[in-house]
Every structure is written in structure tokens, then in C-alpha cells.
Design brief:
By secondary structure, this protein is mainly α. It contains 18 helices and two strands. The C terminus is likely disordered.
Length: about 450
Amino acid sequence: MLCPLWFSFVLVKIRALGLTRYLESFYAVVLLFGLTQGPVLSVFWRSEQANAGLSPDVSVYGLFMFLQIPAVVILFSQRQQLTKRLFPLIALMSYLMWMFASTFWSTLRSQTFVASSSLIMTAFTGLYFASRFTIREQVLRIAVAMQIGLLASWWAVHRNWPGVETSREQWKQDCTPATGENGDMCKIRFVGNWIGIYFNKNSLAPVATVGVLSLLALIWWEARDRSKPWWKARVAILADVVLLNFLVLKKTGSATTLVAALVAVGVWIGWSLLRRIVRSRQEISETVRQAIFSVFAATLALGVWLFAKYESSFASLLGKSSGFDGRTNYWSVSWDAFIERPIIGWGWLAAWFSPEFRSTLPESLTNDFFSHSAYLEVLMGGGVIAGLMFLGFLLWAGEHSTRAFLEREGGQWLVCISVFVLVSATQESFLSGNHFFFALLIAGLTSGLIGEETLTPTSS
């Protein structure tokens, strides 16, 4: 009896002191930090049991669920004013419900039920960010959350915590251990890529890359609003932090998100120029906005196709081997699985955990559990129906958000982060539940549909 009364008393005091917004901002940062997955999975997956079982670790999913419950409660407890552009949100809900329904025909129902529930929760988390924070508030909280993970990783590496760096060994030439000596005498150990508090280099690199992008956005806005005092000092501090973020990204040795980041920067610049053009005109018709989005979407699709076609040339520029670092092997077996069940799929995230599918895997992939492509995961999980639903949401939400991209304060961030996530998802299974990329994508594509009416900015 005393606990509820004490809790109510604390809530009243918090509201009286005006701390509600600060506490929610703190929670939002902690939530994003948790959804980077490293803080949670490094605890549960650093053991040798990381990939030992074929069923989901309930404790892991439970902790992710616990982190997101307050966001979902706040989302549905507020009286949020929606715009009349409801169809993209309906398309999103249809996609989520289809993936949840795939539990009924899944080849591993326990896996699909938990994974699809997590997918829904994380989508609601994205809607929470879109509805509760302005665009600049979102970016600031994203930047802070990324810095926590990067600073913790930096500390872990420099304190030589176990498992924070990859390593490899090479035999010395013409070295033969003397009698009774250990063979390790002839080995040279090379310290490799940074992992930090995360579970591999490709989970740390996205955090560093999003950190760079969010900080660059803050620098852009600070430099634009030069009338504010001390803007040069703030820009200098942010620039230093950008360099630290980029250094961590370089230390990972991962190119998974690097290309996507370059594309995102180009998108930011392009849409900033478009915003200047729009600002110079009295009114832009809906037809013109639709044409702008159509040309942009077609150009983006063409760019991805050209990159895939000439991947070996791009890989050599980045100092990487062709074949997307072996991902084509994963994509091949995943595509075969989709062709086997093309209409309704295997059930969301069920195929790679199903004994039926795993029995056909080549030996080189027997220790792996993901396609390394979010789009193949969608097709495998829900078939062509899920693929069309997801594509419909992307196109519908993008087209209906074009006005926000062009006119809302900081609107270029929405299209920038959405494109970044979508391009990154071609090489990793980022569009899944409990991952901050999926939450960022949903926030990016729905911030223009939920909450405040579109405002014309004073500048780009």
C-alpha cells in the first residue's frame, strides 16, 4: 500500500518541479543507447552460448521489452494529433500485423512470435520519438546516446578489457621452437578491429556512423544560426567530437555503414539545396512535391543498382575485397529459401533458426543465423506479400512526408537518416525488432505525419 502512495507522491513532486521533460529526455537517451544492442547483447552473448541454441533467449528479449515499454505507454497515453495523411501509418500497421500473423505458419513459431512482437514494439518506439520530440530534439538525443556507447567502447579498449578487439595470429617465418618450448614462441599476435562493448565490428560501426551524422547535423544548424552567442565555440567542440567518432569508426575497419553515410551526406546536401529553392517560392503544389519525391526515389534506386553492379570497383577504393566481404554466400542461400516459399515466407526471422533450413546450409555458414540483408529477411519472413507491404509503406510514407522534408525545421534530417538506414540495411539485418536502426527509420518516415503541423523554416 505504501509503495503506490510513495510513487504517486514522487510523480507529483516531479511534475511540480518541472522535471518531467528532463526525465523523459534522459529516458529517451537510455532507450536509444540500449537499442544499439551492444550494452545488452554483450552481457548475454559474450559467453560461448551466444549461438548455441535455436530458440530465442527470453532474458535478452525481456530486457529489450522492458526498455521499450515506457515509450509505448507514453505513445498511447497521449492525445496525439495526427495529420490527415493516415494511409502510410495504416500501411505500416498492416506490415507489422502480417509479420505477427506469420507466427501461424512459421516453421519455428516460438522464434517468430517473440521476434515479431519485438518488431512491433520497436516500430512503436520509432513512433514515440516522432511524436514526442521535434526533429532537432531527436538529433540531439541520438547524438548523446551514441556518445555513451562510443566512450564506453573507447574506455574498454584502452583498459584492455577481454574481447574488445579482434585478434589474429601469424607464424614467424623460419621459426622452429626449441625442444620443450611452446609453439606460441613462433607466433605473432596482431590486434585487429575495435569491438568495444559491442559484439562485433559491424555492431560498433553503425553507432559511430550515426554519431558522426547526428553531430554533423548539429554543426550545420549551429553554423546556420550564427546570431546566437558562442556559436563558434559550440561548433569547435562538436567538430572535435566528430573527429573522435570518425576515429572509432576507422578503428572498427568496417565499411558496412561507411558507404551509406556518404550517400546520406549527399542526400543532406541535395535536400538542403531543394529547401532553399522552395523557400524562394511562394507556394509549391502537391503535384510538384510528388514529382520531387518520385525523381529522388528513382535516383536512389538507380544508385543502389549501379553500386551493386560495379561493387568490385567501389570495394577497391575502400580497400576491401569484392563480393561484399563474403555476404553473397548468405544472400544466395537466403534467396533460395525465399524462392522455396515465395508467397507467405517461413515466418518472421524463422528460416535461419529452423532445422529444415539449416540442414541445407553449406559448412561455411553453419555458425550463422542471419542473411546479412534486411530485405532478404523481409522476403524470407513474410514472402512477396510482406515485401510489397514494406515497399508500400516506404513509398507512401516518403511521398506523404515530402512536405516535411522540404519545409519543416530540420526536415532534411528525416530523409537523410531514412536513406542511411535503408542503404545500410542492404548488407545487414538492421530492420528488425530491438534495433535502433529500425526505430530511427520509423521516426524518420513518420515525423512528418505525426504531431506538429509543418512549419516553414527561416533557412535551410
